[in-house]
Amino acid sequence: MSGETPSERSGWRSEERAEPSAERVRSRARPEEMSCGASVRLSGLKLAFGDTDAAEIDLDVRAGEVIVLLGPSGCGKSTILRALAGLLEPVAGLAQVGESVVAGSAQPPSSSGVLARKRSPKNVGRTQCAMVFQDDALLPWRTARRNVEYALKLRGVPRGRRQPEAEQLLRQVGLDGFGDHLPGALSGGMRQRVQLARTLAAQPRVLLMDEPFGALDAQTRSEMQRLLCSVWQQHKTTILFVTHDVDEALLLADRVVLLTPRPARVRRIVEIESPRRPGAQFEPDFARRRYEILASLGDVPGAAHEEVSAS
């Protein structure tokens, strides 16, 4: 277990320690003025816990793309997100967000192929990336609005702008009128909506989502999936999403990255031709891809591990 608190794990708490120059300029921009998501590059990234290898991965993610990591339980999916958030130092390789190194012992090459001279600050992963967990980690003594306002405060937003911006974010996640409710008075799905609003208040360029809907019932989970698609349309934040649910992966992703058992390596990548299309789950192609992915992961008894085609 790591020593960080639940609030620190959620990604926005660390904004308090951000470098003041560039981050202060960024924090003064209003939500509609913010830039879109950042590209992500994992180059020879090797992660371990003690003597046990957890992941060895190479992956390029385009800015604004939704990537879903899918693999066996315990294969290292969540570990990859933790490295991107700056919570786990790699054994080898590096992780980049945009032009910044968020984790790694080597310098990334510049566009000319020459190694960069200056390494990014260690906390850059925490200022550009934010994590969303199954556990909402809300402050129970603060109302929904004040939970979001606290994230805005940590980002340096002036006091007079916090309440209207918090209310705007709560409206975006479908909680208009619930700003004065304490977390204990909200359902699990509503608390996850508050967590999403609070995370967006940090204005991350990359959203790291670790099975955020895994503890919800089927109907609420479906509602949250639609909400995430709606919020993504507004912000175009890059998303790396971990799940064990093949249907969820196919409904949300631009690309589904299939991982091997631990240590996690990229087995193959499935590209979705028309991502997030309403009603896609009722089409024959959806069922075909679902079967192929399950077969590739070994979840279809007796099925041959056929190559998953890329569209």
* Structural class computed from helices and strand pairing: alpha/beta
**The CATH topology:** Rossmann fold
| General form | globular
Q: Which CATH class is shown? A: Alpha Beta
- Give unreliable regions as ranges: 4-35, 111-121, 304-311
CA-to-CA gap between the ends?
40 Å
Number of strands: 10
Structural description of this entry:
By secondary structure, the protein is an alpha/beta fold. The protein has one domain: P-loop containing nucleotide triphosphate hydrolases (Rossmann fold). Helix content is 33%, strand content 20%. It contains ten helices and ten strands. The strands form two sheets. Strands 6-7-8-3-9-10 form a six-stranded mixed beta sheet, sandwiched between helices. A hairpin with a 6-residue loop joins strand 9 and strand 10. It is globular.
